[in-house]
Amino acid sequence: MTRIFLTTSWDDGSPLDARLADLLDRVGVRGTFYVPGQDAGAPRTDGARLRDLMARGHEIGSHTRNHVRLHRLPLADAQHEIETGRADIEQLIGTAIGSFAYPGGECTGQAVAAARAQSMLARVDTICVHGDTPNAVAIARAVRGIIDAQAG
């Protein structure tokens, strides 16, 4: 039997991520929630909510410390953003993380090098879903349908 692994990813650490996780849970899909290390001008979910997401089977990843576009920074500053963002999230959730998403999905050779220097598994493909939560539900249902069809 072929095993299918699927993850969805959601960026920026919104306090609404718990509601999104409820929707994903209903259709049996797990997600990776990429969270900036600091509150970068928008409310960020707290450590208790992140730990709850993990307890429900979702993954938490880093999204830099200040949600900055790494390709605009010197390499040392980009590495610092990744390193400190990771440390901030690990302190919030009390465990090590290993995944990372580039803010804005923008990665260049320099940003990739910065992520690799921190031994982070970086997501490089980005599908942006804009709009209301029902879009996320539609995607989760479609993906669940693909999994069910494959399982046959």
Spatial extent as radius of gyration: 16 Å
Order of helices and strands: EHEHEHEHEH
Strand content: 5-15%
Q: What class, by secondary structure content?
A: alpha/beta
Reading side by side through the largest sheet, how are the strands ordered?
1-2-3
Determine the fraction of residues in helical runs and give it as a percent range. Answer: 40-55%
Strand segment count: 5
Low-confidence stretches: 124-133
Rounded to the nearest angstrom, the distance between the terminal CA atoms is 10 Å
Discrete helix count: 5
| Mean pLDDT figure | 77
Give the overall silhouette.
globular
Characterize the main sheet. 3 strands, parallel
Describe the structure in your own words.
Strand 1, helix 1 and strand 2 (31-35) form a beta-alpha-beta unit. The protein is 43% helix and 12% strand. The longest helix has 19 residues, at 75-93. It is globular and about 45 Å long. Strands 1-2-3 form a three-stranded parallel sheet. A two-stranded parallel sheet has the order 4-5. The N and C termini lie close together (10 Å). With 152 residues, it is an alpha/beta fold. The protein is built from five helices and five strands; from the N terminus they run βαβαβαβαβα. Helix 3 crosses helix 4. The chain has helices at residues 17-26, 47-55, 75-93, 109-117, 133-151, and strands at 8-11, 31-35, 59-62, 99-101, 121-123.
